[in-house]
Amino acid sequence: MTRQALSIGIIVFWLLIAIAGILQPPDITHIDLQGMLQAPTTEHLLGQDDLGRSQLARLVYGARISLLVAVAVTLATAILGIFIGAIAGWVGGAVDHLLLRLIDVFMAFPGILLAMALAGILGPGISNLIIALSVVGWVSFARLTRAQVFAMKNREHVLAARSMGVLPHVIVLRHVLPLISAPLIVEATYAMASVIIAEAGLSFLGIGIQPPEASWGLMIRDGSRYLLIAPHMVLVPGLALASLVFAVNSLGDVLRDRNDSKMKHRTTLHNKK
């Protein structure tokens, strides 16, 4: 099995798990004190936590949370970053300089620390978590888009469109962004993996998803107190988190390598001409 097929298979698996959790939400609040810290059994395939709640049910719910936050934040940061980067790269001059300074300000702070501060100010909850991660995650998209647009705006087809009086935003949307979509998609995969880790980290620290909801980071935090006597409480969400991040990052590597190969091939053909 190739790395690409394995990555896609793992991602599809967790997507199906998340969709199943949406269609038939599991009961993640049912408490069974007699089953506290119970290891995996035929009745509870992944064991029970410190309150006797099903680890499987909470894992399914956590998959829905992780993917929802990852997709929402990636879309928001991509739209905002591409918009800012396109303006900076196309307009140039003082506007470009001003936007670059704005990007530098956000890059001066570690993203996770800034997200922690914003999440602490906004308060816990999934909506505030999405806002906090979106505010700090757009910088990479903006830098990449700016560089790509700056390189593309002097291409012959773009100059031809400008000479014909086509509006700038139409040129960017129709003639520039489609040509730079490949590296942006690669960036989106890496951004999604980073968001999954960030959501788990913030939930682990208690400023993300709050009980009685379930998150993989929250499950790891709850299980860390019982690691020696109930390791399944950490291993189950930990392996789930690791597998999804590995799959998304691996898919990004495959897409990046493929895009690099295409760029080298085009450069070779251009040089021969």
Question: Care to describe what's here?
Answer:
With 273 residues, this protein is mostly helical. It has one domain (55-272): MetI-like (MetI-like fold). Helices cover 74% and strands 0% of the residues. Helix 4 (111-122) packs antiparallel against helix 5 (126-137) and helix 7 (156-163) runs antiparallel to helix 8 (168-176). The longest helix has 41 residues, at 232-272. The radius of gyration is 22 Å and the shape is elongated. The mean pLDDT is 89.
* Topology order in helix (H) and strand (E) letters: HHHHHHHHHHH
Number of domains: 1
Structural class: mainly alpha
**If you average the pLDDT, what whole number results?**
89
List strands and helices in order, with pairings.
Layout: H1 3-23, H2 55-91, H3 93-107, H4 111-122, H5 126-137, H6 139-152, H7 156-163, H8 168-176, H9 181-204, H10 216-224, H11 232-272
Helix pairs in contact: 1-2, 1-11, 2-3, 2-5, 2-6, 2-9, 2-11, 4-5, 6-9, 7-8, 9-10, 9-11, 10-11
How is this structure best summarized?
With 273 residues, this protein is mainly alpha-helical. The protein has helices at residues 3-23, 55-91, 93-107, 111-122, 126-137, 139-152, 156-163, 168-176, 181-204, 216-224, 232-272.
